[in-house]
């Protein structure tokens, strides 16, 4: 039973007109109306977008944005939304377009977008129970659900974060403190001295946040030992073993190995089980960066790529990549919940020690924090985990079919076999043996496609050479769409090839 209210409902002494723009009783009809207007505006913009990008350049758009007088508000929401259409929606990059195949951005699950409206309106903050109530329990439940999918036992825990960058940082922070505690480094004078012998091992294809984290954690980016990758762009086990042995012989401490389950560039998955065995042998923390490959946890046909992930100490999962969630939505999951103590601090006003309610801030680097978990919750409760897995399997199939298509075409060269949904390749016209010319051709193809807006693709380099890249995360993209993009690539290249190759 709810306690009766003790505050009379008409106790407000003064209401300024601006409170009518805040979510409170007086503004509820306006809220309802404005939400509908916003949904209509964005729906129309999405329906009108017949290609992934308009090709707009900053010089076109900047004057429009600059011309707005931010100190002179418009009279109505429809006017303001019309302005947003012109400044943003008309020229946005649309990830739901079947011809967007550039970065790790996904078209978003509708239930997750609905959840955005709910969580922003209520505005819960996940730092403490007394700012969130059920939201805290929902997040905890999803952390346990993810941990169970990983194969962790009952002792696991974790927390939602803003993204893989923060999840990786927190994983490595726990690894660092664990190493300092566990490896007999306590006798040394100060923290910097304790940190000096620590090393992190990651493949040459690992995400740059590993080095950034090493810097932030006081180790310096050169504490990251780069382990060579095989032709599939997976960490070489023999090379890792040699590096661990050499560093141990030199008296250095293997603080952590970062294995990547889905490298950003190639979608390659490091051999997790073999890496886990070496971590066990050398007493190194295993952090699995599954920011990209995390969706394999619900895949029907490709879950085996993650075999061995259950031996990790910490795992990064970006739901805003392969779970089709809007940014931001990520988590760091730990096998041993007690490791989260490495980020626990108590403040009397917020989360006093010995409090009886669950306070997620005890486990997080963030304080005020969005209820991003509601998006995944509503997605699992409607589309379901199997539905997400189906969508991911579809894009993996598409990537493999695309690779097959490229293999059959002598004018293209595939950089590496496809594992997830990424295809790295380049156009290599017959008879072109000057690498610099080939580089310029491929770089210019990408630019020309982006400028036209008909297709958006990415680029990268391999061994110093320029390549093109497809990252597929749209289950609505078909092989026909891919063929259309390949045709666009060829026609962008034709004039350059005819003029004897780009010369500068
Ligand atoms: C995307 C990505 C990250 C960074 O995650 P954000 O959510 O962008 O912060 C880290 N590691 C890998 C492998 C990634 O693909």
Automatic annotation (TrEMBL):
The Gene Ontology CC terms held by the record are: cytoplasm
GO molecular function list: aromatic-L-amino-acid decarboxylase activity; pyridoxal phosphate binding; transaminase activity
Q: Which InterPro entries match?
A: Aromatic_deC (IPR010977), PyrdxlP-dep_de-COase (IPR002129), PyrdxlP-dep_Trfase (IPR015424), PyrdxlP-dep_Trfase_major (IPR015421), PyrdxlP-dep_Trfase_small (IPR015422)
Say which family it is in: Belongs to the group II decarboxylase family.
Where does the secretion signal sit in this chain? none
Keywords in alphabetical order: Aminotransferase, Decarboxylase, Lyase, Pyridoxal phosphate, Transferase
Q: Which cofactor does it need?
A: pyridoxal 5'-phosphate
Organism source for this protein? Arthrobacter bussei
Question: Pfam families given for it?
Answer: Pyridoxal_deC
Q: Name one GO biological process term.
A: carboxylic acid metabolic process
Carrying N6-(pyridoxal phosphate)lysine, the residues are 321
Q: What is this protein called?
A: Aspartate aminotransferase family protein
Q: Which PANTHER family match?
A: CYSTEINE SULFINIC ACID DECARBOXYLASE (PTHR45677:SF8), GLUTAMATE DECARBOXYLASE-RELATED (PTHR45677)
């Amino acid at each position: 039973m709810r306690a009766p209210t003790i505050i009379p409902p008409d106790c407000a002494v003064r209401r300024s007109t601006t409170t009518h723009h805040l979510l409170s009783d007086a503004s509820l009809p306006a809220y309802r109306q404005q939400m509908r207007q916003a949904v209509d505006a964005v729906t129309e913009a999405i329906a009108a977008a017949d290609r992934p990008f308009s090709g707009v350049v900053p010089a076109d758009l900047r004057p429009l944005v600059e011309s707005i007088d931010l100190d002179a508000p418009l009279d109505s929401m429809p006017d303001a939304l019309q302005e947003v259409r012109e400044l943003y929606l008309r020229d946005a990059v649309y990830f739901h377009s079947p011809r967007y195949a550039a970065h790790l951005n996904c078209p978003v699950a509708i239930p997750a977008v609905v959840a955005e409206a709910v969580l922003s309106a209520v505005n819960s903050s996940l730092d403490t129970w007394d700012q969130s109530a059920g939201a805290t329990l929902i997040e905890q439940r999803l952390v346990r659900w993810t941990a169970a999918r990983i194969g962790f036992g009952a002792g696991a825990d974790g927390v939602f974060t803003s993204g893989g960058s923060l999840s990786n940082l927190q994983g490595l922070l726990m690894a660092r403190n664990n190493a300092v505690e566990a490896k007999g480094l306590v006798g040394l004078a100060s923290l910097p001295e304790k940190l000096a012998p620590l090393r992190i091992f990651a493949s040459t294809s690992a995400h740059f946040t590993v080095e950034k984290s090493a810097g932030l954690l006081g180790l310096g980016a050169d504490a990251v030992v780069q382990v060579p990758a095989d032709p599939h762009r997976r960490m070489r086990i023999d090379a890792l073993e040699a590096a661990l042995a050499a560093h141990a012989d030199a008296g250095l401490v293997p603080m952590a190995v970062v294995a990547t389950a889905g490298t950003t560039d190639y979608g390659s998955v490091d051999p997790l089980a073999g890496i886990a065995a070496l971590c066990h042998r050398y007493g190194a923390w295993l952090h699995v960066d599954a920011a990209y490959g995390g969706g394999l946890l619900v895949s029907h046909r490709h879950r085996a790529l993650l075999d061995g992930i259950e031996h990790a100490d910490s795992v990064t999962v970006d739901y805003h990549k392969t779970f089709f969630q809007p940014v931001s939505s990520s988590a760091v999951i730990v096998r041993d919940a007690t490791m989260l103590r490495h980020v626990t601090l108590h403040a009397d006003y917020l989360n006093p020690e010995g409090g009886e309610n669950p306070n997620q801030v005890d486990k997080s680097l963030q304080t005020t924090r969005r209820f991003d978990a509601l998006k995944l919750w509503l997605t699992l409760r409607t589309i379901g985990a199997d539905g997400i897995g189906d969508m991911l399997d579809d894009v993996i199939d598409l990537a493999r079919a695309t690779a097959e298509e490229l293999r059959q075409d002598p004018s293209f060269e595939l950089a590496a076999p496809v594992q997830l949904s990424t295809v790295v390749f380049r156009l290599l016209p017959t008879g072109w043996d000057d690498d610099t010319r080939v580089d310029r051709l491929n770089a210019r193809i990408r630019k020309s496609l982006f400028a036209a807006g008909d297709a958006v693709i990415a680029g990268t380099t391999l061994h110093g050479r320029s390549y093109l890249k497809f990252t597929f995360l749209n289950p609505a993209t078909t092989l026909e769409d891919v063929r259309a993009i390949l045709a666009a690539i060829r026609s962008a290249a034709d004039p350059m090839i005819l003029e004897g190759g780009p010369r500068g």
